[in-house]
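$ run holo --ligand "flavin-adenine dinucleotide" --emit tokens
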Amino acid sequence: MSRRIVVCGGGSAGGVLAARLSEDPSNFVTLIEAGPDYRPPEETAPEVLDADQIGFTTHDWGYSSTDEVVAADGSPTFGIVEQGVVPVLRGKVIGGSSSVNGANALRPTPEDLARWTALGNDRWSWDQVLPYLKKLEDDPVGGELHGTGGPVHIQRFTEGEGLRPVMSAFLDACAQAGHPIHQDMNGSQRLGAGPLPLNRADGVRQSSAIAYLAPARDRDNLTVIGGQTVDRVEFAEDGTTARAVLLADGTRLEADLVVLCAGSIGSPSILMRSGIGPRKVLDELDIPVVQALEGVGKNLRDHPMVYLTYEVDADAVGELTPPLQTVLTFSAGGPEGAGDVDLHAVVLTMEPGRLLVPLVIYRPYSLGGMEIVSRDPEAAPRIRLGLFDHPDDLRRMVAGIRHMRTIMESAPLQKYIKAEIWPGPDVTTDADVVRAIREGKNTCCHAVGTCAMGGEGTATAVVDQTGKVHGVEGLYVVDASIMPDIPAVPTNTTTMMLAERCADELRSDT
Ligand SMILES: Cc1cc2nc3c(=O)[nH]c(=O)nc-3n(C[C@H](O)[C@H](O)[C@H](O)COP(=O)(O)OP(=O)(O)OC[C@H]3O[C@@H](n4cnc5c(N)ncnc54)[C@H](O)[C@@H]3O)c2cc1C
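-- output --
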């Protein structure tokens, strides 16, 4: 039986979903994306294709968080549009955030999935998701843990294979500080340093648009519509079965199945505009309640970050690209103690004479949330990331900054580093470092959890383990918003894995 499927949002998950679902000729898939759809893919804006460009805002929703920041002189501004305001960057383009991101392709760990199952999602164990992690990748490492021949090509820069001297020196400095060096940071050992797995090929960022949609473009049963914003979902007379998607310009698309893939800000916004969300929010905006689900927009987790910033000898550093090649993950005693992967640092060379070290809390306790403030689909929602709200996130970041200082000041990096710019050499006491973190805090742009997976009736649960929205029929959410907890890695590969898995289930849905 043929089905009309409308996929709302063409990002990391939406690109995977549309491509996989349209492999079945009985599915007629329409993908709606608010940002531009570049067709043919080679005509994509250069910064979107170029994996070396990170932190640009030419294809962004322009959201910001209400987190209080007291930006002081010298606080890092990379990725920040307005000093003193924490941006919530979200790609607005075919491929979504996978088209604008850093192409860091770290995969989730077995411990990440164990936390999902502990939250009542027993179908998301490591053993059940590993086949999908392998299916999506083309990783030359191969072996039992890796897939070869999948859509997303993985590249590592190693000694003799493009690893830049300054990056190699960073790995030496990590080794000298006692960290094990692993050639495969997506392997079984995750604490340590090594070449960063990156989803790039020939310098091109392997977004879902490039890796998944481009090869599917010729299918008669796949229609991609760019530049159209989804307003809301319309329900049949029974009041609970999704039957159409309404676009902001008034267009109505009939559907047998609606899948929201608009991301951790977009999907809960569409749900709320459709009458699914916290009763208080819906009542305040006079939106008729289809299904009261208190978890919509709650449970927002992100990875809090600061940018340690150094003045470097530009001649010694040489070429600035590729700007990102290596990673260190270590522990400051996170929720599960000393073995927890809870801090993550990379070195970034984005401008001559400067080196940035984004240092990230990967097991945050801090919690945020979002809600719409208008029925207008073009209006920005109110977002609070809650970065460093929890004192233990601050404690671990203070420890992390101290540890990174010893690495950055050690002998292997001496010929490159001239001075610490941020937090700055005068910032030495714990109180000073905490103040600096509050002034310079930022986000890794990894928001998840706002339509969390979990059993019906669970406090924050919005969807079941297949992505189906509780209490209604024919409506699914499949994207980063359904992660019940944030993985201790950047979130793109986990999102694509999740989309691969849900696509498998939806293909056989009748
Ligand atoms: C600047 C940046 C850097 C990052 N770096 C990394 C990294 O290096 N590695 C990593 O693993 N992760 C990274 N991430 C995070 C990762 O990219 C995201 O977690 C992931 O892309 C989320 O996928 P998604 O499908 O949930 O949402 P998205 O990929 O954001 O897709 C949502 C899509 O829906 C569209 N949309 C939203 N609302 C509507 C609407 N109403 N109507 C129509 N379309 C709509 C959006 O335009 C977008 O295309 C980064 C993110 C950003 C923003």
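-- notes --
Residues 391-408 form the longest helix (18 residues).
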